[in-house]
Every structure is written in C-alpha cells, then in structure tokens.
C-alpha cells in the first residue's frame, strides 16, 4: 500500500488543507482548532459508543433507536431516480436465512435504503452489491410498510469469490461493525462522524496509504469504514510507527503498560474495544503529564544557571518588621526566612507564595523588597490593578522612607512617568510599585534584584519572563496568589517554581457568614437590605457587585446575555449560558448603574450615599471613589469585579454579589474575602437566579458551606475546566494539555514528576531522548499561551 504517485509524505505537520479536497470541511475543522495532522490526531473523542449487539432480523427491535448488526444476503438491488432535485434512491432487498440459522431462529427479510444526489456514489454502491452476495450491516432498524428497514446502514461486503470485498468472512465483518466508535465534540458545521472520517483518513495517509484508496473518508455519503488495522497489519504498523515516533522512553511504556504512540492514536480513533480505547487515552494522558513535568523541571534547572544579585543585608527588613503593629505569624516568619535564604544565593529565586485572602502576604512581600533595597539594589512590586497599586504604594510609603518609593502606572502624567522611569533606569536603589506598566519596554531597572508579582493568576508566564529582561542580571522572583490551587495543579502550572504556603489567617478574624439568596424571594431580599442598612448605621461599609457595567440594549434578544456580558464587564471569567449547560433564556445580568439606581430608591437606603466603581473609570476617579468609600463618606459601593483583588478597607463588613451563579467558585471566594478584614463580623450575600437543583445551585452550595479556599478551588476545578479556573478562556484547541486533569490525575502527575526527575538526572540535556526534547520544546512554547491570561 506504499505511495506510488511520488507525492511528498504526510507528516504530523502537514496542514489539512493540503490533504482534504473538501474546503468546507477544512474550514469547519479550523474552527475547532484543527489545522494540521497533529491537531487532528489530538482532537480526542470524549467517549466511545457501546459495542453494537449482533442480532438476527427477527430479533430486531425497531423504533428503539438502537443500533444492531446482522449478516445478510442480497436478493435484489433497485436504483430509482427520484425527481431531479432529490437525486437517487437505492433499495436493496436482503434476507438473513443463513445467519439466522446459526442463531437457531428463523430467517426473514429487510430493506436497505440509501439516498444520494451523486450518480458516482450510487454506481459505486450498486457495484458492490451483487445479487446473492453476502454483506454485513449495522444500523438502526425501523418499520416501513410492514417491513424491517435500515436507512443508510453501515455496510461491509463479505469475500467469497469477490476479491475486492471489504472483509473475507462474516465473523470479521461483524467484529468490525460492532466495535465501539469514538464520539467527538462537534458543532453545527461538522458532525462527529465527519470528524471521525477525517481523522481516520489522515491516519491512513500517515500509514502510507494511497490517497485514492483512502479517499472515501472524504466523501460525504460514504460510510466510515476506514479501519487502519494497526493491530493486524504489520505493514501499516511499520509505517505508522515511523510517522508517529514514540515520545515516552520505551522502558517507561513497558513498565507502565502503555501503548506505542502510533498504536495509541489508532486505538483512540479506531478502537478494537473499550478497554483498548481506555488504555490508549491513558497513554496519551501520561505523555502529557510527563512532557509537562519534564519541561517544568528543565526550566527550573535552567534558572539555576543564571546569575542574580546576592541580597544578604537584612537590617532594613528587620527594622520594618519591628515597627509593625503586630507580630508575624509563625507561617509568615517561616516564609520570610525561606525567601531570605533564596535571596542570599547567586542564582535567581523562583518562588510561588500561596496564601488565602487576608493571610498577610503583603508584609512578606515588603520584607523581601526591603532586603533587596537594604542590600543596595532595586525591587519592583507588580499589582494587577491600578487601585491595588495605589494601595500598596500608600502603605509602603507610609512605613518606609530610606530610599525612594515610586508609583508607575499607565495612566500617569507623562512628566511624572518620565521621572519615575529615569530613577529606575539610573540604578539607584528604590522600590517601584507598578501596574502592567512594568512590562512595557520603557521600564528598565539595571539594578533590579527582586520582582514581586501579586495575584499571579492575572499574569502569564510570558510576562514573568519579560521581567527577567529588565535588569543586568536575572531578578529574584516572588509570585503571590490568593487563588488556592490544589498541590498537583500547582505542580502542573507552576512546577518551575518553589512553593510556600501561608495557611493561617492572622489577627483572630471572624469567619464570614455566607448566605445564598434567590433573587425572586422578595422578602428575603428586603431583609438583606435592612441588615446592610443596620451595619452601615454602625459605621461599616458594603460592597455591591454586579457583573456588568451598563445595561445592554440588546437584551431583548435574550439568550445572548452571557456573551454580551463578557464584552461589557471587567471580567473575562463570567460563565456563559453555554458553559452552564443552560438552555432557557434567563433574565439579563445586572449592571452597576441599574442596581445603584434601584437600591437608592429603596426605603432601606434613604439618606445613604452610594458610589460606583468600574474598570471604565479613569485612574483619578478610581482613586477618589476608593478614598471616599474608605472614609465612610459613601459607605455603599456598587462595583464590578474591579474590587476583586486585594482591595483592603477594614470597615467593609457586607458584600452582595448579584448574579452569583455566573461566577467561578474561586472568584466568589476571592470577592467575599474583601469583607471582614477589620475584625468585625461579616456577611457575603450571593444573589442568584439559579434554578432549583441545577448545577449552578450546587456550586453556590459549596461556597456557602465552606471557607476553605483549597477545597473550593478543588470543587471549582471539578465543576469547570482548568483553563477557566486560571482565567484563560482556553479551549482555543491548541493548549498543550488536552487530556490531563489536574485534580483527577493527581497520582499520575506525581508519578510523572518523579520519573521525569530521574530521566533528567541521567540525561540533563535530553540528548539521548530527541523526540522527548522536541515535545518539551513544543510544550514550553504552547504553554506560554496556555498560562497567559488577560
Ligand atoms: P493578603 O494575603 O490577602 O494580601 P494582606 O497582606 O492584605 O493579605 O493582609 C490582610 C490584613 O492583615 C492587613 O490589614 C494586614 O495588615 C493584616 N496582617 C498581616 N499580617 C498580620 C499579622 N501577623 N497579625 C495581624 N494582622 C496582620
Ligand atoms: Mg494582597
């Protein structure tokens, strides 16, 4: 079956448009992120069908919409043209007398019906169906005019005298039509079956088959019968193994009972059995885990090869810690020491600090920065929002005046900005508090010893990398996140970093009480507003969070509201109807302006001043609004999720989150952490339109009953995809991790990490594992995109 036409060999990199004549199909696949052969092979099915049962025709159960398979003999074939528009109808009368006898039942008759516009197809079909010829069929039986009928059944011709038959025996034919089929995520432009056909076609080309022979996979009316026969045909096996070389080392495949890579792809897209399919998926999943861990461990080793400023003077730092109005918790002390140890090395620290909202990460970060400045260098703290940068800038300036503390944001006046950039570029020891502006080329700090990134999930690996280019040597890196990530997830996403945890909350904080409030429950809503009024009268503050900035004019359309909201919110992470599997159109999402007006007209809020804050406000406005809220002038703030990260107003005791059913759990947890930071009692009200017993309601239940960030993160991961939790809308189809699930596959990830470490110990540059080296490189490139959000 070797290629004879001299065309170039198909490889994993071959683009599909070079292989498929059907341009509509090429473009439909492109929409799914499938551009080349590799994409096609890694467009994994999400399940396989059950094996099709074998029955005699009399045992058929028409009307049940259940497939069956049977062996029959052709009695007659009739091709009749329908009217000009509709094309042709092929009607085949068959009996199963012989086959029924083997099952000890009586034989009977059935009709097979095919329709097509294309004469060529009809001729090809009729040519295969000779009177008295045996065929194996599989399909969904129906009754039509008192006779059993199969419309477009799958069909294999059985050998005998016919050398061009599909199979040589009935048993072989039955085995093939009955085997489980993969089912793919499809869309309105391409069906799962057509995706399957294309992938099998591509596999056959990779196996060296002639395009003309493999062609019918691209024929819309032909049945998918493109078995690759990896298991049975040594020629195919040889070709495929060469075209799809193993990435995992051979000894590892054997030890873990995994398949060869080519075999795995064959068994995923063309499984012999459900068991083989599962084993094949496990193989590819393990490969992802292993490649990912190898890439991360290598990145970590690489970092050790770089130079960093040694920061060993801790005097300034200790003075700062001594002036704090509280003592560090044991956890904070430990992390400060870990960081201190790292910063005394001459290679860059790569550390992730995980700690619940309110666990006191800022003090740790400031300590580290003072260690850098005290040692004669520069430090930068990057915050995800303007508001947060302001806050950090204020609190650091308040406690520290031994070196310049500078604020760098995008919205600054040019002259001011120039001055800050000038100081940084001069190399003078200083602390820079910045927003994304720190990633711009104009920011250079040749004496930069430490970069702290607050709230990592808003930043990507690429941005982390950008910071490394700011200085003459690599800065020490401290990444902080309040979104608790299960251990194996952290291992997968931040496996190149050392990890510290802050587990206890300082200062005897009282747990936040969380209540889910169905929006249609008017008395409960009223009671909630009264409660808030009382807290405000007691000198406290309240946040009201809405997903949208403005009311949309397009809401009348219904159903689309989820999509609109993304464009009109400060949040790329809202769930859509589709994410939630909702089909009923629901009321439009609430907006800041609408809610602000509505609440101000309520008796509960007479005489109370409101303010509004959204991502659209300019920096000056934001600053003013925050200050007025903090001072109590405007004790109720209606805002978007701009308040999500880090905002710290100790008097805030209540937060109301409208459309709470539309947020990720970790995000709700994060939002709720905005209240109760001053030691008062605090409340989070999750206003929801979730239907009773829906998944959305279950999700809110989780958050209402737990304050454990790690558990919430775990549930969030189970209920949604990993990419969503990271804030990456992902699913562009090209992310490197397609099968690996950071929660369910925890054991696999841990195992892969151990084995990857062993392999790298023996072969640090992967010179003896070239396929693996290539995959690692691809992963690192793809992963930049995968981890980059916002
Ligand atoms: P986060 O980890 O969410 O960034 P912060 O650093 O903002 O938390 O700290 C939350 C609050 O706790 C701040 O007001 C901070 O001053 C206070 N805090 C931090 N450490 C301690 C401590 N050891 N004892 C008491 N209060 C503390
Ligand atoms: Mg913080």
Automatic annotation (TrEMBL):
SUPFAM superfamilies for this protein: Nucleic acid-binding proteins (SSF50249), P-loop containing nucleoside triphosphate hydrolases (SSF52540)
GO biological process: DNA repair
Chain spans, region Disordered: 550-571
GO MF annotation list: ATP binding; DNA binding; DNA helicase activity; hydrolase activity
Residues in Helicase C-terminal domain copies: 568-718
InterPro entries reported in the protein's UniProt record: DEAD/DEAH_box_helicase_dom, Helicase_ATP-bd, Helicase_C-like, NA-bd_OB-fold, P-loop_NTPase, RecG/Mfd, RecG_dom3_C
Stored Pfam families: DEAD, Helicase_C, RecG_dom3_C
Domain Helicase ATP-binding: 342-502
Keywords: ATP-binding, DNA damage, DNA repair, DNA-binding, Helicase, Hydrolase, Nucleotide-binding
Protein name per its UniProtKB record: ATP-dependent DNA helicase
UniProt source species: Bifidobacterium animalis subsp. lactis (strain AD011)
Gene name in the database record: recG
